[in-house]
Design brief:
By secondary structure, the chain is of the alpha/beta class. It has two domains: about 160 residues, Medium-chain alcohol dehydrogenases, catalytic domain (Quinone Oxidoreductase, Chain A, domain 1, Alpha-Beta Complex); about 150 residues, Rossmann fold (3-Layer(aba) Sandwich). It is about 30% helix and about 25% strand. The chain is built from 13 helices and 16 strands. This is NADP-dependent oxidoreductase. It comes from Lentzea kristufekii. Keywords: Oxidoreductase. One of its GO terms (molecular function) is oxidoreductase activity.
Length: about 350
Amino acid sequence: MRAFIVDRYGKSGNTLRAGDVPEPEVGQHDVLVQVHAAGVNALDLKIRDGEFKLVLPYRPPFVLGNDVAGVVVRVGAGVRRFQPGDEVYARPDKDRIGTFAEFISISEDDLALKPKRLTMEEAASVPLVGLTAWQALVEIAGLQKGQKVFIQAGAGGVGTFAIQLAKHLGATVATTTSTANVDLVKRLGADVVIDYREDDFETVLRDYDVVLNSLDDKTLMKSLRVLKPGGKLVSISGPPDPAFAGELGRPWILRPVMRVLSHRVRKAARRRQVSYSFLFMRANGQQLGEITSLIDAEIIEPVIDRIFPFEATNEALAHVQTGRAKGKVVVKVRNSPKESS
């Protein structure tokens, strides 16, 4: 099957190689999915460039890609919830990535039925950012009606989804964006919009319950200062904390390293009587099913920036790398049955 492959780690002009690889094996509890579309994420760039080698030691050559929508073509003997012909979507487990390909084998537990009202391309844009927002706001922060949440980079992939989810949960939402995207984030539900080129959010926001951080260390430290005592800072851009080492199943090796990496922010958080958590989103088919219900109820809609053809996967990654995408970038791997007829 055709796929886009990482042959080596590296940041300087590194691109994926288009090539042929064996079709993936299907275990007892696995589902073989024919890929119709794959979402493109900043995570793909970080993996390609080797930024996660310490915690995600993929051995080149390997197929890249962390979001998928497609059709079930075969199921393992132990699979009960899916059958051939089902339209599905997923963020595969971190140890089984590879959606920039014609087929991928995914654990049944990580898979969900595709929202009926979405195209394959729209569905492929959802899993990683949707699960990130869900696990940050619902699972970790426990965001409640009447609380205030600050979601950084509101026009990005995670931001566009998180704003809508937070509004559904009944929160007051603040976000940052550029002038060009103010109308977009307001349409998605943002109550307080800060143009980061004109204003410093630290001078505008006070006594927030939750911050979802997705930017650099400087922004992370400033974010602590907009929280009220008892508030929660959830970061998806680091630094990783000791609890993350346990989640990876490598606590004795990585916990001391992550304790050092996160020492400064954890100490500052304690001083301000707030909590700090690092989130590396994990695959979860049950949570994705909850997200499907919200999408089909028209509570949340995906925001798509551009759709690239499969052969232009490297160009799609380059576009994400510019940091200027509004919402998500998607690669279209094959036509749906309706388009082919």
